[in-house]
Specification:
The protein is built from 14 helices and twelve strands. The protein is of the alpha/beta class. It folds into three domains: about 10-165, Glutaredoxin (3-Layer(aba) Sandwich); about 185-270, no CATH class; about 290-395, no CATH class. The strands form three sheets. It has a five-stranded mixed beta sheet. Strands 4-6-5-7-8 form a five-stranded mixed beta sheet, with helices on one face. Strand 2 and strand 3 form a beta hairpin.
Length: about 400
């Protein structure tokens, strides 16, 4: 098997608008309600859209939405789709398609009820909203999601981004081969100055760690992602910090990365790559089974304990350990996880599986996995403030070939 690492150059966004909004506010209620039609300016028939695009020399813009349950989809419909300036700005270059997956199927046409689930599966849609740019033959040209390109810019910014997508690619794909089959796509279109660093530093490292994480994070019923997109974006990601993962896409704020190429850039990306491999929420998790302190602590465990222990990212934890608790998230929990794994090898693999299988309960897991309660383990952890217990090394994990 092999991993293909490709560099894409397009920046894709979701969106379109309509003169008759698909999402409206019920008078006096403050609540969003949904009509029974596809947004004006869109069609729900992809086959017809492809034929029209090929005949008229246009691209096809396909928005995948969950219009009555997805918060991001609702925001896009309110802030972008409902704005009158959007469709006129893009319709000369795009045929607009809206593929909805609502809970209430009555808003769909009979054709859409049958066709939309097949399209979702065919194009591997695992997060909403999502968007594809296709050519007239149905070939995928670009792929993105809510965070990429939007960042609060509204309909006008969306239109600008879509116009940028018309431009032909300027970088040929860059390909690497490794023992596992995962395609890594690196989009440096808005940050061409980061292309060289991405090609020489980021891509080889991500390829290496895709192989390692495939083994370290393996569990029954789980399969590694088939494709991961690393996409530089030109604005901070709202409240999500300098990097953010959503589904199989990792968004990277270009300005911060330029300032940290020789510092935290690689470790930060390893943290987000771990989130992609966790796949806890996609597999139907809830806060009961998938608490955020575990998911963030595990991602920092991979980063601080296994990837860059020499950076001593958990050093601050040792200095303040008496005032901390094992479920403090991020580096605090990472340090605790490293201690537990060093004393009870295999615990982290059990933890990862429990999170994916939705069987993690803080009050039960630690006793079953180690024979001690979380409180007892925390006491042992704090008593080992000298760091005498050896921390696990990534070399201890055997990658399956």
């Amino acid at each position: 098997m092999r991993t293909i690492v490709a560099f894409a150059v397009a920046f894709v966004c979701i969106g379109a608008t309509s003169d008759t909004p698909h999402v409206v506010e019920a008078p006096g209620s403050g609540k969003l309600v949904f009509d029974t039609s596809t947004p004006a300016g869109f069609t729900d028939n992809l086959d017809e859209a492809l034929a029209k695009a090929k005949q008229e020399g246009k691209l096809v813009y396909v928005c995948f939405s969950g219009s009555d349950w997805c918060g991001g989809c609702r925001e896009l419909e309110r802030e972008v789709f409902a704005q009158p300036e959007f469709v006129p700005a893009v319709e000369k270059d795009y045929v607009l398609v809206f593929i909805d997956s609502p809970s209430d199927k009555s808003v769909l046409t009979e054709r859409a009820k049958k066709k939309n689930p097949k399209l979702v599966k065919e194009y591997g849609i695992d997060r909403y909203p999502a968007a594809l740019i296709l050519d007239g033959d149905g070939n995928m040209v670009r792929r993105t999601g809510y965070m990429a390109g939007y960042s609060g810019g509204g309909a006008v910014e969306y239109a600008k981004h879509l116009m940028e997508l018309k431009k032909p690619a300027t970088f040929a794909p860059y390909v690497l081969e490794t023992p596992v089959l995962t395609k890594l796509v690196f989009d440096t279109s808005i940050a061409p100055d980061l292309r060289k660093w991405t090609e020489e530093k980021l891509a080889p490292l991500m390829s290496e760690w895709v192989v390692k994480l495939t083994d370290i994070m393996a569990s029954d019923g789980w399969e590694p992602p088939k494709e991961i997109l690393f996409q530089f974006v030109g604005k901070p990601l709202n409240n999500y910090g300098v990097a953010y993962s959503m589904g199989n896409r990792i968004s990277l704020w270009d300005h911060w990365y330029r300032e940290n190429l020789n510092g935290a850039a690689l470790g930060t990306t390893i943290h987000e790559l771990t989130h992609v491999f966790q796949n806890y929420w996609t597999m139907g998790g809830s806060m009961d089974y998938c608490p955020s302190w575990v998911s963030e602590g595990y991602a920092d465990y991979i980063r601080c304990i296994l990837f860059e222990p020499e950076a001593d990212g958990c050093g601050i934890v040792r200095k303040n350990i008496e005032n901390l608790h094992y479920n403090g998230s991020y580096r605090v929990t990472a340090h605790f996880f490293g201690f537990v794994e060093s004393r009870y090898p295999g615990t982290m693999k059990k933890l990862n599986a429990a999170m994916r299988n939705h069987t993690f309960y803080d009050s039960k897991f630690w006793k079953e996995a180690t024979g001690k309660t979380a409180e007892e383990l925390e006491a042992d952890w704090k008593s080992d403030v000298s760091g005498a217990a050896p921390t696990p090394k990534v070399e201890d994990f055997k990658v399956k070939r």
